[in-house]
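Quick start: what a row looks like.
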Amino acid sequence: MLFGKVHGGRHLDPFKNPATAVLLIIGLWFGVNLVISFVSGWAELARVYRFRGQFLGETWSFQSGQMRMLMGIGNAMKVGADQQGLYLSLLFMFRPGKPPLYVPWQDIATREGRFLFWNYVELRFRQAPNVYLQISKVLAHKLAMASGGNWPGD
């Protein structure tokens, strides 16, 4: 008996009740997102760089990246830049436990890398030194242009 219990000789299956099934699926979705937040380092970044305002700089939606522990973000990230810093957020459905972030340029260090055919730029964060975000060189170039000369790789 994986789910449910016997009651009066009947096996109670939570998936026979649509409301219970939906609640279990939503709970699982939130739980998985919270685990990913901690494993990837997003939660660590959010402790110091959480952003609650409305970002007004230039943004690019549906971007990808790679964080620690092989946590990939595939076409689910919104990335932005202005003269003061870097903005990161995720699509609504991937946001539980991963609030939007805003990191000042002076807290970011960059280095270029290559893995097979992927040229990337790795971002490291001063107040969360164990966390990194790898983004494509093309996206890094767009961010550098939007930074008004404040990109840490300049």
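That is the whole record. Strands lie at 6-7, 10-11, 58-67, 71-81, 85-90, 101-104, 108-115, 118-125, 128-136. The two ends are 61 Å apart (CA to CA).
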